[in-house]
Amino acid sequence: MKPLYTLALLLICRCTLQAQYTEALQVNDVSAQFNANGFLFNSPDLSGSGYQVPYDPTSPLSTIFAANIWLAGLDEGEQLHIAAQTYRQTGDDFWPGPIADDHTGADYIAAYHRVWPVDAAVVDAHRDNWDSPGYVVPDQVANWPGNGNTANGEAAQLAPYFDYNNNLIYDPANGDYPLIRGDQAVFMIFNDAAETHMVTGGEPLGVEVHAMAYGYDLPADSALFQTTFLNFKIINRSAQQYSACRLGLWSDLDIGAYLDDYVGSDTILHMYFGYNGDLVDGPGINQYADNPPAQGVVFLNHDLSVFKSYSNDMTVTGNPFSANDHWNYLQGNWLDGTPQTAGGDGYGGAIPSPFLYPGHPLDASAWSEVTAGNFPFDRRGVGVMTIGDMLAGDTVCVDMAFVTAFSYSTVIFNDTVSDQYHLNAVQVLKERVAEVRTFYDTNFSDCSLDYTANPDFSTILDPGHTGLVLFPNPGEQMIFISGMDKHLPILFSTIVNINGQDVSGQILGPDMQNGISIENLSSGLYYLMIQYANGDQVVEQFVKQ
Predict the structure, then answer these.
(1) This prediction's pTM
(2) Which is deepest, 47, 104, 111, 535, by most CB within 10 Å?
(3) CA Rg value for the chain
């Protein structure tokens, strides 16, 4: 599918198409495409659907043609700031990389016009073997963007990582490693401040977005099978204070062939979804035939506050263009500013409704596209969460899931047997989403993925005023200790290097005033740790010449 009004404009795509600008997350029967500028589920030139399920490179059936985030808020003067993309035919509202002084330099482009795929197995192997003789750090770990270039105005800490030696520098050769979720992940950094907003024409917010898509290789798990998770960390790097902020996830849900689709929402599961509007998928290419799936977009840690679907046309219920158009949709209004209403196609009714088609398609008494009698066609829409205030320096964390479900049998709904597999897929989807929500609530008490200090090593690197004196310091052959508490028995003591590794090479006895040999140590900084039997611990540093 291509947008009807923009085919000629696709040639102006200004993306940098080096090898790693775009990568696919391929895990658990899904292939999902991700791009350096945050554009989801398609290649940079819109050459094909990028959310393929079930994944088969010889038969690229897909449920999502493209997706993007929309973000908007009002500054202290009530002026709208907005970044929102759909197909990017006229340019961009988001660009690769963190906010910086210079977004165009060769070093910046080389560093950030890419995405970072990582396998959990590779990270685990690095964590367990980084200090083994002959070990070589793999590229997935070595190239992780843990730190920004502060000389270019970039934030010091970027991609989440475990800091083994607590030096605030991502150095995997000394034990640091990426922090990811799932069995496979893809990480992106993008911002809305690098250039003029060409999609909406809106004022920038000055936000930086860290996004991680991930999945679990668990084909036997009905909840996680054919499910992709997405974590957004949105940082207000500007000096502006924003109010009335709204975040949307826009998507063009194409269930196989795109000309016969319906959409709906679920206010309990905080989901919107697409499904086939008739029994057999088609006409068009890439058809699912007799068993088309339902595709859900789920908000996991925020409520769904608006679901807006619109037509692929130029009417007041059609494609948005201006900043105000996108802002209207984020608020649940149509392009003419009138509110979305309950019943029919959602336009021109008497009762405002923030949610389109919240009824179950199998429920003949509920409002859905089925009971509305709509003609199945090309559907796209945006689910919205309300953020409220976003102050300078604030971070908003969002977790989402993309869940796909097929039905190959009848289901019982309201005591009635249904053999309409395209509608039954919605029932299976709802059951799966409920399980996904339970999995998320059970396993993730915190949405954030951040830099993490090593709690064990932080104690080692925090020597206080212990009253101990090491001499001579620096030393060459021996060091001696004065000021020890002779009334407290010593449980153990050791020498560690700056990486927290035990290098004493000897059992240090309780009477260390006779001196400790350091003859076999390499030159450098070391820490003497003494653990008393009462639980007290003291640390002092010394230098071996």
Answers:
(1) 0.83
(2) 111
(3) 28
